[in-house]
Amino acid sequence: MSNLNHTLEVKIPFQNNRFAATAQQVMSVDPIIRPESFQVEYVVSEEDNGTLLAKFSAEDDKSLRVGVNSSLSSILTIIETMDELDTV
């Protein structure tokens, strides 16, 4: 197994925990193409209301950059969709 020693944690603010949990659920079903070289964990923060914490790990800086870019692009799409569809 590869050593995933390149890491990054990103806090993504949402309006509330419901939105953060929805984003977590949507992102959690996306398969990782090369799990031996890149992994990500999504956690709804209990300390920061409405914050999704994304924890990225990769075997090298390029894998980290590509994986983070892809994940953040997907999260942006989720946020835009929530803005358009949520009526609360």
What can be said about this structure in brief?
Helix content is 42%, strand content 26%. It contains two helices and three strands; from the N terminus they run βαββα. It has helices at residues 17-28, 61-85, and strands spanning 6-13, 38-44, 51-58.
Describe this structure as you would to a colleague.
The N and C termini lie far apart (45 Å). It is globular, with a radius of gyration of 14 Å. It is 42% helix and 26% strand. The protein is an alpha+beta fold and 88 residues long. It has a three-stranded antiparallel sheet. Helix 1 packs across helix 2. The mean pLDDT is 91.
List the helices and strands and how they pair.
Blueprint: E1 6-13, H1 17-28, E2 38-44, E3 51-58, H2 61-85
Antiparallel strand pairs: 1-3, 2-3
